[in-house]
Amino acid sequence: MKAYVFDGKESAKLEERPKPKIIKQTDVIVRVEKTTICGTDLHILRNNVSTFNPGTIMGHEGVGIIESCGELVSRFKPGDRVIISCITSCGRCRMCQVSKFGQCLQGGWLLGNEIDGCQAEFVRVPFGDTSLHLVPLDIDTDSLVLLSDIFPTGYEVGVLDGQVKPGCSVAVIGCGPVGLSALMTSKFFSPSEIYAIDTNSHRLQVALELGATHAIDNSDGTAVQQVLDITEGVGVDVVIEAIGIPVAWDMSQKLVCPGGNIAVLGVHGKSATINLEDMWKRNFTMTAGMVHTNTIPMLIKQIRAGHLEPKKLISHQFNLSESEKAYSTFIHASDHETLKVIISNEF
């Protein structure tokens, strides 16, 4: 089969790989219909993810049709169309028992990281019964593939962990797809102000169209001061950091108001300093971690109700044979006004 593979050093390309087989009887083999590229994939290509297994097929998001199931799979059957969760969960360990699937003792983020992922014709999904979701027939697959990762991540790790509440103020640092997902789902709680911060003018315009009240251009490095001027020096209640670099963390500390929350979405590959000499007296809360994807069923309901339109983040469509072009378009987002790219399996 065709698959997009990274050697763990500097070469990523589409190549021939053996079709996956069932290894354990809880496995499911899915023929991938649609997948996409995540900002985390770029962190992998930059060698910022220590858990990545060199030579692994990339990708952890997808929608597809089940081709075969292990004998212990009871919730699904061949022919079912499913959303592939970016998180693999055994459903039995003590972490899964409290719905902390991202910390599953046997799973967690495996696909496209420790084991072969979704940017291929077929993918093996461990623990299929608890790692897949049936696709509702009334929602398009382009929207549903975005529920594999970025919308649950934006909502759970950003909005819920950041404790967005009605009438509060929110700052989103980084208006890539996951930052915009956090922005869109924060509106479930009716914040009074949403400050979208980026250096990309197109993404800032999109943020305004999606509900941001303020677009803050940080091209000259003055975003923090701009927000502090607007808020009379107080800052914002919830800062959602969606980039994953030290400078974004530094901005978060300066932007959060006393008693506020910083929710880190960004995948950090380098150390970042908590400036406790300034922050100890701020009564702030900081959260970070893996998504659990337990909100996928709720997000499906929000799409059906018309409260969420994931397709608004899709900017480009490619075939699997065009994976290298898709990556180039995603990497050079400013040149192509790229948000989320969809990769369809045409084979």
TrEMBL record:
Keywords: Metal-binding, Oxidoreductase, Zinc. Signal peptide: none annotated. This is Theronine dehydrogenase-like Zn-dependent dehydrogenase. It comes from the Bacteria. Its EC number is 1.1.1.-. It comes from Shewanella psychrophila. SMART domains: PKS_ER. Its cofactor is Zn(2+). Residues 8-343 form the Enoyl reductase (ER) domain. One of its GO terms (molecular function) is oxidoreductase activity, acting on the CH-OH group of donors, NAD or NADP as acceptor.
